Amino acid sequence: MTTYADRTFTPPERIRNFCIIAHIDHGKSTLADRMLQLTGVVEERAMRAQYLDRMDIERERGITIKAQNVRLPWKVDGEDHVLHLIDTPGHVDFTYEVSRALEACEGAILLVDAAQGIEAQTLANLYLALEKDLTIIPVLNKIDLPAADPDRYAAEIAHIIGCEPEDVLRVSAKTGAGVKELLDEVVRQVPAPVGDSDAPARAMIFDSVYDTYRGVVTYIRVVDGRITPRERIRMMSTGATHELLEVGIVSPEPKPTEGLGVGEVGYLITGVKDVRQSKVGDTVTSQRKGATEPLTGYREPRPMVYSGLYPVDGSQYPELREALDKLQLNDAALTYEPETSAALGFGFRCGFLGLLHLEITRDRLEREAGLDLISTAPNVVYRVVRDDDTEMTVTNPSDWPTGKVAKVFEPIVKVTILAPSEFIGAIMELCQSRRGQLGGMDYLSETRVELRYTMPLAEIIFDFFDALKSRTRGYASLDYEEAGEQEADLVKVDIMLQGEAVDAFSAIRHKDDAYAYGTSMATKLRELIPRQQFEVPIQAAIGSRIIARENIRAIRKDVLAKCYGGDITRKRKLLEKQKEGKKRMKTIGRVEVPQEAFVAALSTESTADKAKK
């Protein structure tokens, strides 16, 4: 250990920073559990599955949402080393979490399931790591499974990353076989961090969370110099200065230390309560004799999908704003701005990286802040050019211009699908029905194929993944990345009740799909909206043209119940009176749409089915 000004720091040459990247369910969190046990940082009695997945929602769904870091001691050839492990998510919607974690590392363990082989997200994360110039250690997991075929998949990995099949390590995260050898390889292969310990302090913020009692907790990776408690620090992008109350490491629980040196990963607490003060990607330096050049930050994430979030109870609007503020600190990919809807009241237009991101965010807001929320149908960002050549960006169907539209541009994505070759026909049929254009096809081995398509983002965000899984019996995997925009024939479909448009149900659809959407929405609402005292027409319209209609029949009161026989004119008089009353009510009556109808109509089919169950 090296001592600076009576403080002890780990020399950089003894430090290894690495992360685990893989597809969903390939065993990242289980491998991290074995590493925690092997290095002795978690006692056997305190051990539990998915130890680093802290949120209830992660444990319930069995997926990692937040990248977590932990410091592990390890001895190789009699020398002590410090390993910083960052466990990353696998789902395409959380790629931004992965890219931030990679910035804090010099190496990556590429984990592949020995029974399933390389999947689309494995490739996406591998390319991210190669872009950052990280050392890749290929590893096959789950070799204990009866269906495992390590030789076949080792050859597949070797073919993709350009190594020998013998170089691919084989482990079982469940039984612990091969994990010790893997940690030894991490020390041997991953380069030590490089930095100048005598230069002014520079540290990169790669994550931050909000703690109710301690304020903002900021996770950093020190690049140059050192950071010690009680000194004043400056955030280089905002210029804000704070006093460091605590500096520490995560092993796997937070432990205060005497400071952090070059290459070390840890946390800072300044006691700041304002979540905007600690921006992910910012550089932390000392206030006195600080650095002048900030580190290269992160590329700002661009939302792919927009949806409105509204509290069911309008009085919870301030709580929703506060909850979104806190959540944004923890999830830098979330963006939001206030908006109002005639049907739903005050809420926020939120930007997400995908549908799972939307679902998880809504779930977290409901659990962590105790809110009851409605989310509107998700849609993407369109660029609309009017007849007078003025341009506007549309993230919400209610922003669609009323005048003539010259051109509409929609975002497109490059889609990569990996699947067994027997499903090629089914996949092609699905992609073509969603306006996809085939970009290329490669065989990774005799039985596995990679298909590349260019598709409109709007066609894949809703239920494309479910349709793909059902057509390939669950064997296909999907990854996508943005690829610019294209001109498209799009229209706004309005849903009208009693001749009045309900903005929450409006949608932007392709012209060929508009009729199907209008018909299905009208049919759905006919079942969901309770009958009124008068007949209610539900209409779907494009501009002033009605494309679909359903009627909700009126509740008919039996006004003749008390007439036992007698003169027919009396009965006719009562019926005429009822007819007049219904006519008058129809002119002044407004259709009340219950909240349950909004929730059911705006949810995807699967969510609606769950609600029924």
Automatic annotation (TrEMBL):
Mind telling me which CDD domains this protein's record contains?
Answer: EF4_II, EF4_III, LepA, lepA_C
Question: Where along the chain is GTP bound?
Answer: D25, H26, G27, K28, S29, T30, N141, K142, I143, D144
Give the enzyme's main class according to its UniProt record, as a single word: hydrolase
Q: Does the keyword Manganese apply?
A: no
Record-linked Gene3D superfamilies: 3.30.70.240, Elongation factor 4, C-terminal domain (3.30.70.2570), Elongation Factor G (Translational Gtpase), domain 3 (3.30.70.870), P-loop containing nucleotide triphosphate hydrolases (3.40.50.300), Translation factors (2.40.30.10)
Q: Which membrane topology term applies here?
A: Peripheral membrane protein
What is the predominant subcellular site recorded for this chain?
membrane
Reading the lineage from the top rank, the first entry is Bacteria
Entry keyword annotation includes Lipid biosynthesis: no
Protein keywords: Cell membrane, Elongation factor, GTP-binding, Hydrolase, Membrane, Nucleotide-binding, Protein biosynthesis
Localisation per UniProt entry = Cell membrane
Q: Where is the Tr-type G domain?
A: 13-194
Q: Which GO terms describe its molecular function?
A: hydrolase activity; translation elongation factor activity
Described by its record, this protein's role is as follows:
Required for accurate and efficient protein synthesis under certain stress conditions. May act as a fidelity factor of the translation reaction, by catalyzing a one-codon backward translocation of tRNAs on improperly translocated ribosomes. Back-translocation proceeds from a post-translocation (POST) complex to a pre-translocation (PRE) complex, thus giving elongation factor G a second chance to translocate the tRNAs correctly. Binds to ribosomes in a GTP-dependent manner.
Q: Family membership, please give it.
A: Belongs to the TRAFAC class translation factor GTPase superfamily. Classic translation factor GTPase family. LepA subfamily.
The identity of this protein, by name, is Elongation factor 4
From which source organism is this entry? Pseudonocardia acidicola
What lineage, starting at the top, does this entry show? Bacteria, Bacillati, Actinomycetota, Actinomycetes, Pseudonocardiales
